[in-house]
């Protein structure tokens, strides 16, 4: 297993002039279903996904899941902080993008990490990444994330086991 950690100073939430996340509303429900892999940090549609494959679905907020925070970039993507640990100030980050929203990936990740550090006061944010998408690692590094671990045979996909990675960051207080 390979490990690494990236540390950041805590900035104000979101980049100036960048996209702003807002809380989930019932009208955002279509954003919660798509052709990405469930639980992905970089939830882009999977190329070559069979047309009859069940879409991934994220549940809307509910009072029986107090460790979830759900936000949207209207019409473009959702950002979900799950397994939120308010004591140790850490959470797993998931995103899901609408078809054709690939151009917004970096801006959304910047907004999500700014929101995590600034608004939510989280010190550690991490997520699962299934490698293989060209340019994905460059985008993840550009927003300040580092690959922390490689897990072989972590997921069954397209009839075979595939590895996954954990990417994350830590913020200074």
From TrEMBL:
SUPFAM superfamilies for the chain: Acyl-CoA N-acyltransferases (Nat)
Region (Disordered): 1-21
Protein name per UniProt: GNAT family N-acetyltransferase
Species this chain originates from: Streptomyces alkaliphilus
């Amino acid at each position: 297993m390979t490990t690494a950690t990236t540390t950041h100073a805590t900035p104000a939430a979101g980049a100036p002039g960048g996209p702003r996340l807002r809380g989930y509303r019932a009208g955002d429900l279509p954003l919660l279903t798509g052709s990405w892999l469930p639980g992905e940090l970089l939830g882009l549609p999977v190329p070559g996904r069979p047309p009859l494959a069940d879409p991934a679905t994220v549940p809307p907020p509910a009072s029986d899941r107090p460790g979830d925070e759900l936000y949207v970039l209207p019409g473009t993507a959702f950002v979900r902080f799950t397994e939120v640990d308010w004591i140790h100030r850490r959470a797993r980050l998931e995103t899901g993008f609408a078809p054709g929203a690939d151009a917004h990936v970096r801006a959304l990740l910047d907004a999500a990490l700014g929101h995590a550090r600034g608004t939510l006061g989280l010190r550690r944010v991490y997520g699962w990444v299934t490698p293989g998408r060209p340019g994905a690692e460059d985008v993840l590094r550009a927003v300040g994330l580092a690959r922390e671990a490689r897990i072989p045979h972590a997921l069954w996909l397209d009839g075979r086991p595939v590895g996954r990675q954990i990417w994350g960051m830590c913020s200074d207080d």
